[in-house]
From TrEMBL:
<keyword id="KW-0472">Membrane</keyword>
<dbReference type="GO" id="GO:0016020">
    <property type="term" value="C:membrane"/>
</dbReference>
<protein>
    <submittedName>
        <fullName>Permease</fullName>
    </submittedName>
</protein>
<keyword id="KW-1133">Transmembrane helix</keyword>
<dbReference type="Pfam" id="PF01925">
    <property type="entry name" value="TauE"/>
</dbReference>
<dbReference type="InterPro" id="IPR002781">
    <property type="entry name" value="TM_pro_TauE-like"/>
</dbReference>
<keyword id="KW-0812">Transmembrane</keyword>
<dbReference type="InterPro" id="IPR051598">
    <property type="entry name" value="TSUP/Inactive_protease-like"/>
</dbReference>
<feature type="transmembrane region" description="Helical">
    <location>
        <begin position="135"/>
        <end position="161"/>
    </location>
</feature>
<feature type="transmembrane region" description="Helical">
    <location>
        <begin position="173"/>
        <end position="193"/>
    </location>
</feature>
Length: 249
């Protein structure tokens, strides 16, 4: 379920996995363990999404995002040790509420970006993207998303997709595919750090990762063939509900 939803939205699915893993009615994992175990599965979500979105990935931008994200993902994972389980859960809840509007807003952001590019079409075709667009912007996006991925056990796509849509000339599907591809290495980097801290539950992680891989691949194929407008709003509502639950529990 998390793989499908995450791939449709260009995210890792951690927003779905973590609240369910910490639920007393399901796995009842400690908050820190849920974050680390989720990040283990996020790596496979990104890999499957990258395969599903073949032809829609800017590998140069993905590499820049991944390289800077690998560094900051470790810092984000280490930052979780400074927070109690309750504080970490509340921080995740606040982050989910802040991110929720970005999901349905992505299409608007893409449309605005495409209109901006269209008005400057002659300029765009006459010259290649600047080194700022090619390197600096993706590196900056990766630094931010990597830290959030390491800390919250999510893919960071909630930051990457809107940022790529607004700050580069990528279309909607390129932003989705590039985001998923870029999250693989930062997720692995953060997972290694979480594992060293004992925050990856191996009796759960392989099965979670397998399900996330299959769901993400299916979700990426669905995203290329169906109208995702109602899905984006539905996913946003789910994040609001889970975010409020994390804050108020």
């Amino acid at each position: 379920m998390a793989g499908v939803c995450g791939s449709l939205a260009g995210m890792g699915g951690g927003f779905i996995m973590i609240p369910l893993m910490t639920s007393t009615k399901l796995l009842h994992l400690p908050q820190h363990a849920a974050h680390g175990t989720s990040l283990f599965a996020v790596a496979t979500t990104g890999l499957a999404g990258a395969l599903g979105y073949q032809g829609q990935v800017d590998y140069q931008a993905a590499a820049c995002i991944a390289l800077s994200g690998m560094v900051t993902a470790r810092a984000g994972a280490l930052a979780t040790t400074r927070l109690s389980g309750v504080d970490l859960r509340k921080a995740l809840g606040a982050f989910m509420l802040a991110v929720a509007p970005l999901v349905p807003a992505k299409q608007y952001l893409v449309k605005q970006n495409e209109e901006r590019i269209g008005t400057n079409d002659d300029v765009a075709t006459a010259s290649s993207p600047s080194w700022i667009q090619k390197y600096v912007i993706p590196l900056g996006i990766g630094s931010c998303s990597g830290f959030l991925a390491g800390m919250f056990g999510v893919g960071g796509g909630a930051v990457v997709v809107p940022a790529l849509s607004v700050l580069t000339d990528m279309n909607h599907y390129q932003a989705l595919g590039t985001s998923l591809t870029a999250m693989v290495l930062p997720a692995l980097s953060g997972t290694v750090t979480h594992f060293s801290q004992g925050n990856v539950v191996m009796r759960v992680a392989p099965f979670l990762a397998t399900g996330a891989f299959l769901g993400s691949y299916a979700g990426s194929k669905l995203a290329l063939s169906i109208d995702e407008e109602p899905l984006k709003y539905g996913f946003s509502v789910v994040m609001v509900v889970l975010g409020l639950q994390a804050l108020l529990r």
